[in-house]
Amino acid sequence: METELKEILNDLKSLQNSFSDPSLHSQFDKIRCRIESLVSLAKSGPMHRSKVKDMSAEVVDSNPYSRLMALQRMGIVENYERIRQFSVAVVGIGGVGSVAAEMLTRCGIGRLLLYDYDKVELANMNRLFFRPEQVGMTKTEAAVQTLSDINPDVVFESYTMNITTIQGFETFMSSLQNKSFNPNKEGSGVDLVLSCVDNYEARMVVNQACNELNQTWMESGVSENAVSGHIQLLVPGETACFACAPPLVVASGVDERTLKREGVCAASLPTTMGVVAGLLVQNTLKYLLKFGQVTSYLGYNALKDYFPTMEMKPNPQCSNSACLKRQEEFILAKPARDAAARTKIEAEALSSTESPVHADNEWNISVVDDSEFGVTNTGSSDVLPEGLAHELPSADGYENLPASEETSNPLDDLDDLRKQLETLNAEKS
Amino acid sequence: MEGWDPTTKSTLTQIPLLTTKAGPRDGAAWTQRLKEEYKALIAYTSMNKSNDNDWFRISAANPEGTRWTGKCWYVHNLLKYEFDLQFDIPVTYPATAPELELPQLDGKTHKMYRGGKICLTVHFKPLWAKNCPRFGIAHALCLGLAPWLAAEIPILVDSGMIKHKDDAASSSEV
Fold first, then answer.
1. What is the pLDDT of residue A299?
2. Mean pLDDT throughout A70-82?
3. Where is each THIF-type NAD/FAD binding fold domain found (chain A) (predicted)?
4. DSSP single-letter state for residue B80
């Protein structure tokens, strides 16, 4: 288009020269100005930048990383360029996941793995990232399209599948274990998994995979009414897993006639989702690039602007067996962890010649470590004061159920049972 | 369970409870669980037949027993409305319940997630979580799908969203 416009401009010039009448000149000039503005418009069309080999800190307009590398000069991050070695898996490319993926892409993350089985719909347009012309595309396909335009340096892998099915789960697990991007990495093939899904089942699946792979992950969520959200760091064995503290189960005994007819369609706001995605990726950057304090749980209540934080220890009676295994490993590794902490403290003490804060200790005050292992259960006792009773059954209740003799009957044959059901199915009622 | 009608309650108590806590990735334990699932389904189906309340057909669509397909139906104003029924056993089963799907009703009601998964969040998921691992597929049908059909089909028919297959011929057959 640009070359064609230039040809028209040349034609115009020769035409102008063939007319000697000066009264026409201003007319010609007007037309030339309009064509020239069209030429500059055509020049500013979609531009694709080429890949960058090394992140440079040079402050020029054309450097996509100058503002990020400045984090080093400001003393926030020691080595920003390490971000190119990291792989992050984003599970669920919805209101939170797509924005988180864009943030990581703009930060120049090494590799992004994207998982979703949904398609882009017009009903998604109240959120950020996806555009109306992408309606009908799969979310993974649309995301890779946009993200690779924004930053071609990032390696994208997209998985269009449902991770809660058996087959999907196997693909999910093997994709997390694939180390071709960074063969020297310890553990799995990714540095962090971000769960940005919208349902309990999928969260339990991410939890299962990460517990089995001993993979650190972060969970995020926005409430159905769109005015609160949270992020949570889950380190298998060290912090509570997603199954350690199951969501509050309230069996209200709903009558089927009173079943709510609204309620399936959840509300959502681009603001809350953007805030939660921001909190999630901020925590991700702190975790990966080792700056600041990585938060273990951060809530966001939009109505009151309240941001609660807390820490959750793993549940020794967690129903997830992989979680119990990780807990055991974590306890066994305690001496090594303590030794590492001690040498670190000693090294710090050496580097700074520290003098005692107080020269004398008249009252013999000493500081006692109260985070020791094993002292957490001292408070609980089975003996209750008079008039109080335990409302909940003891935790191991169901294990003690008398095993029905049927289950141990070796004569049971799966094919027999299948045939019995088929016969029943075939019978006319 | 207070609030459930007495019929559902007495039906439920007659479906055998399951004991093995195993999912499809647990090998031999899953086979054991599958046997218990079959026993519960056989007991529930024959109970429905003897009470003249037959309302579904379900069978495993693969040898591993991880995908199930069949039919379910509901009678409203003396007309029978029948739908395909399908679901996968989730990888975290039985910690999470199967997501029952009625693909033919996809997009026709708000009480449904994409792909025709019926909404079980309020009336069924808490019960399932509380009774893990004792509830199985039969319980999910009895306490999840049956109340959903009872609540939704009359509204879908009355609002004209679904039509009886013999609608044009103004038939009166049941």
1. 95
2. 94
3. 65-319
4. E
